[in-house]
Amino acid sequence: MSRTLLFCAWGFLAVLFLGITIWLLIAGDSITAEMKKNQPSAEVRFVNAPAQDQSGTKATDRPVIQKDELEKSDPGRRIEKPDAPTSEQANLSPNAKPLMRTEVKKSTLQLHPHPDPQLVEKASIGPLPIIGKDGRQAWQVYARPFSKLDKRPRIAVVFTDLGVSANATESVIQNLPGSISLAFAPFARRLKEWIKISRAAGHEVLVGLPMEPIDYPVNDPGPYTLLTSLPEDQNKQRIHWVLSRLTGYVGVSTFMASKFTVKPDKLRPVILELKSRGLMLLDVRENPLSSAMGIARKVQMPAIARDLYLDGVATRESIRARLAQAEKIAKSRGHAVAVARPYPVSVTEIARWAKDVRNRGVTLAPVSALVKLAQQ
């Protein structure tokens, strides 16, 4: 009896398997088509580089930053580790190509020479900023001078992510007034040269401090990113690496910090470390819930936060509308902080706006001047 049941069971399974096989052969094409229909896919389009006229508002107006021999890649918001060891970045061969293709723009307003030996700690990792014995701090000493007598509402425009693209960085330095502040990626190649050129053109500079974003590690800012999973001493070592990459900067700006800045227990030691070294903080506010400004106020650290992005939509009309919004904010409360990236359309529109800014009832000021205003 049991053998008969076993035989029947095997027979049923064989018939079932045969039926499924036949059905798949018949319906297979339609199933595959349905899977492809529902599966998300990336569309890759090749477009020509846009012409100099960036007056349109279509999606194709989004600027393209072309690569050149001075850069390995243009990864956007993701920054890669430099090819050469950092200790070799400043010691280029005599045959190295000039960083700038055109003559370096010189400012009539001279910034304080850097590095100031009284504001530098000679650490094994490299030069680190310190507060001078006389109390002088880097965020004040290296700042672009700004007249206290100018009582007009102040607008600070800060260009971020600089140094990754040589073309884009050169365009920013050559075409924008020195009162615009520049924030450089710490992994940028030939970073010390960029800082020297920027300050000679009258721009005060900051360095981007990479911090953990919400979607880390899918979106990875780089090998020295501050992480919420690391203990305080390891994050401190990473801070020191970033700070040792250059001199002459007024402070740091947050970079891709959407997760790290909403963790007060992790962020507070970072802010205290920066304060102890005489630096200011620009919170780019990648996350609107950032706790950076609240902590900075409690520990009395010089800091300020972004009010708006100018080129979240990188078209002429959108940037002009955002600049008008920045003017309204400044007139209502005395100051506004706007952040932009080195897109060609951003450079063009902000340069155009800056030429006429004094006729708009506001003044363009370095970001450090807004921090000083907040402390008065």
Structure overview:
The protein is α/β, with parallel strands linked by helices and 376 residues long. It has a domain at 124-375: TIM Barrel. 35% of the residues lie in helices and 13% in strands. The chain contains ten helices and eleven strands. The strands form two sheets. Strands 3, 4, 5, 6, 7, 8, 9, 10 and 11 form a nine-stranded parallel sheet that branches. Strands 1-2 form a two-stranded antiparallel ribbon. Helix 3 (166-175) links the parallel strand 3 (154-162) and strand 4. Helix 6 (264-276) crosses helix 7 (292-299). The longest helix is centred in the N-terminal third of the chain and has 37 residues, at 2-38.
What integer value in Å does the Rg equal? 27 Å
* Class from secondary-structure proportions: alpha/beta
Specify the number of helices.
Answer: 10
Estimate the global geometry from the Cα principal axes: globular
At CATH level 3, the topology of the domain at 124-375 is: TIM Barrel
Question: Which range does the strand content fall in?
Answer: 5-15%
Low-confidence region ranges: 24-95
Kindly state the mean pLDDT as a whole number?
81
In the CATH scheme, the class of the domain at 124-375 would be Alpha Beta
What is the β-strand count? 11
CATH architecture of the domain at 124-375: Alpha-Beta Barrel
Series of secondary-structure elements, N-terminal to C-terminal: HEEHEHEHEHEHEHEEHEHEH
The helical percent reads: 25-40%
Major sheet summary line: 9 strands, parallel
Distance between the termini: 98 Å
Going by CATH, what is the homologous superfamily of the domain at 124-375? Glycoside hydrolase/deacetylase
